[in-house]
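Protein details
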Amino acid sequence: MVGAYFQPEFAMARNVLTRVTGLISILDDIYDAYGTLEELVPYTEAIEKYVIRILFLELRNLIKYV
């Protein structure tokens, strides 16, 4: 993660990015190893809806500033 924010003033951003990446990795491993199809289908749909919503909101905010 040092390559993303290598300046000393971005130490907090490196910490947050490292923790989020670690959490995503752990959740992905649990998803792959322990999930059944019946459990994973609604979970995947919820994640997809969440990601689409976030992308839409970010796009809308970007259009406001352009």
About this structure: The mean pLDDT is 86.
